[in-house]
Amino acid sequence: MISAGLAMAGLVAVLVLVGVGVTGALLPRAALAAAVGALLAGALAASLGILAAVAVVLLGLAVLVVFDAAWAAPVRSLQLARGGETLLRQNEPGELTLDVRNPGGRPARLRVRDQWPPSAGAAPAEQDVTVPPGERRRVVLTLRPTRRGVRASAGVVVRSRGPLGLAARQGGHRLPGSVQVLPAFPSRRYLPERLARLRQLDGAVIAPVRGQGTEFDSLREYVVGDDPRSIDWRATARSGSVAVRTWRPERDRRVVLVLDTGRTAAARVAGAPRLDTTLDAALLLGALAGRAGDRVDLLAVDRAVRGTVQGAAGTQVLGRLSAAAVALEPALAELDPTLLVSRVLARARRRCLVVLFTAVEPTAVEEGLLPVLPALTRRHLVVVASVEEPALDALRAGRADSDEVYAAAAATAAAAERAAVVERLRRAGAIVVQATPDRFAPAVADAYLELKAAGRL
């Protein structure tokens, strides 16, 4: 009878342990306690029998586990609040905070897990913190997101351990939290050098020029060769010598950055989506143009307009372009060149610089862009910027076996076809910039500076 009772108690103990494991959590220390209990059961087996000894040990373990779980601080009553950065840049770290307040009367020994998606790059995944009764503690989490866009947390899971460390309560808090991930800007390192070149042209120290301009600079004495129309007759009368006005080179030009977000933008070039590489180049060019005093527009388009920025200037350019690029994703559709041209012409009525970031694919360009390109080049200065595939050069150099020879022939034919399309774009009046991903952003910026130096902007 006693053996049957002990067996029943052991069964109940097993059910209790399973229930605690389902509703809460059994901790590693519980397994250690079970191992010690197994040794104890072996010692008691001689006097009580093996089944009775196991039942006694299980019953004792169940009592300890239930006591430990019962004395763990309640999870639902914890008060959680978020803080820290909400605007991060791709591949760069940022800190988020989680404040945990314990309103109960027992210490809260907690393990906290903030459930961010893998692309958010959250670390550490779990953190231990002890919150005394009535006090608050802060948990700091570092995010290093690997993708653009909005990244949101699915909530916070909290595990509250008991004083013995055998069992824990567990529960989740639906705590809204999200960060906006701006596009990466690795070409930032090229900005100081390009700004120095810009200052030599028409930056911080603007060289006076003869003749009519848009912004008066100063007066100086007339020299042979000066435009007579620049003579200031009032100043001449006052000074007794012929004085001419000097002007600052024209500023406040408009630069329209057009991003092709069609299917070609989804292709991966050198391991990164083409759209991400073009965004990096657009950010560098936009920052440079803003520092030069130009106004910068952005138009992201495929079959529809996906994003837009209008009239950004000065130091605000980089922030506005980055914010507009957060949600941009390639669409599985071809670029609508007619829509592109109509939107650019409607937006920019005066002559400006239009930089079109797209892929120079022979079929897409010949059938789509080339027929409508003259409508742009007649009114604006147009630059077509395209990311080159570096793998083509390696393929063209292959001669080791027949497979490599065939691949080299195909790559050479593709390169020749692309070169013919580039020549047609140039004949249509566009300036074409092509470079591999590692040189693409500085190449686009250099083209802008060359146009500035030549006086075409």
Describe the structure.
It contains twelve helices and 22 strands. The protein has 457 residues and is α+β, with helices and mostly antiparallel strands. It folds into four domains: 2-71; 79-182, Immunoglobulin-like; 208-248, no CATH class; 254-453, Rossmann fold (3-Layer(aba) Sandwich). The chain has a six-stranded mixed beta sheet with strand order 19-18-15-20-21-22, with helices on both faces. It has a five-stranded antiparallel beta sheet with strand order 1-11-10-5-7. A four-stranded antiparallel beta sheet has the order 2-4-8-6, with no helix packed on it. It starts with a helix and ends with a helix. The model is unreliable at 5-23 and 203-214 (pLDDT under 50).
Features:
about 450 residues; Immunoglobulin-like; 5-stranded antiparallel β-sheet; 22 strands; about 40% helix
Short description:
The chain is α+β, with helices and mostly antiparallel strands. It is 41% helix and 26% strand. The protein is built from 12 helices and 22 strands.
The rough form would be described as: elongated
Largest sheet: 6 strands, mixed
SS content category: alpha+beta
Distance between the termini: 102 Å
Strand content range? 25-35%
Q: Total number of β-strand segments? A: 22
Fourth-level CATH superfamily of the largest domain? von Willebrand factor, type A domain
Tell me what the CATH architecture of the largest domain is.
3-Layer(aba) Sandwich
Q: Would you state the CATH class of the largest domain?
A: Alpha Beta
The number of distinct helices, counting runs of at least 4 residues, comes to: 12
Name the quaternary structure: single chain
Overall average pLDDT: 82
Lateral strand order in the biggest sheet: 19-18-15-20-21-22
Low-confidence stretches: 5-23, 203-214
Give me the CATH fold name of the largest domain: Rossmann fold
Overall domain count: 4
